[in-house]
Every structure is written in structure tokens, then in C-alpha cells.
Q: What sequence folds into this?
């Protein structure tokens, strides 16, 4: 999706925004909500590319995102990286079983 049009499709739009910016157990509840969201990849990529410091985005807390950014300092587009990885994963799930019986 272009820009952040994806945000209109996020599961988080149905909850109080304060729930996404809590601490402790509130963060864990927000991460669970993100787990079933269809735009999780776009959300996480946006937060990483924009260096958003607070809240749960795409299933990751600010601490999770900081750690990821430190581990991968050379990534120039998280959107491209994460969407490519997601697409590759989805193609692998849909590929016919190529195992050879022996």
C-alpha cells in the first residue's frame, strides 16, 4: 500500500490508542493484537523507517525496535526488506511439496 494507507486496515484502529503506548502487560496485550493483523509488516516497516520511538508497532515495542536497528544499521529501507521477506515466506508456503519419495 502506498504511504501509510495501510493504517486504515490495522486491527489497532478498533482499540483505544492508549493501549498501544502502555508498559508491561499492556505492551504484551498490544503485541498479541498485532499478531493477527493483516498490515503488521507495513506497520513495523513504517515505525522502523520513521524511527518512531514510542509504542507498539507491528508487534514490536520500542525496545525491540531499537535492538533491531542496532543489529541491522545498514538497512536503508525496512519497508522493502520486510515486504520482500514476507512475500518470499508466503510463496514458500504456497509452493507445492517438492519432496521426492525414495
A:
Amino acid at each position: 500500500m502506498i504511504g501509510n494507507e495501510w493504517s486504515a486496515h490495522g486491527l489497532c484502529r478498533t482499540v483505544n490508542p492508549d493501549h498501544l503506548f502502555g508498559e508491561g502487560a499492556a505492551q504484551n496485550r498490544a503485541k498479541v493484537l498485532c499478531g493477527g493483523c493483516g498490515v503488521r509488516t507495513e506497520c513495523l516497516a513504517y515505525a522502523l523507517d520513521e524511527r518512531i520511538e514510542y509504542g507498539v508497532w507491528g508487534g514490536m515495542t520500542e525496545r525491540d525496535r531499537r535492538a533491531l536497528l542496532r543489529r541491522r544499521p545498514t538497512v536503508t529501507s525496512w519497508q522493502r526488506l520486510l515486504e520482500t521477506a514476507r512475500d518470499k515466506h508466503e510463496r514458500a508456503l504456497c509452493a507445492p511439496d517438492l519432496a521426492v519419495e525414495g
